[in-house]
Amino acid sequence: MGEPYIRPRKGSIEKPLRIAVLISGSGSGLLALLNHQQSNKSPHSTKLIISDNENAGGLRHGEDFAIPAVAIPLPDFADKSQQRKIHENLIHDMLIDSNIELVVLSGYMRILTSTFVSKWKGRLINIHPSLLPKYPGAHAHRDALADGAKITGCTVHLVDEGVDTGEIIAQEEVEILNGDTIEKLQERVKKIEHELYPKILDIFCSQNV
Ligand code: GRF
Question: Which domains are present in the chain?
Answer without folding.
Answer: 17-205 (3.40.50.170)
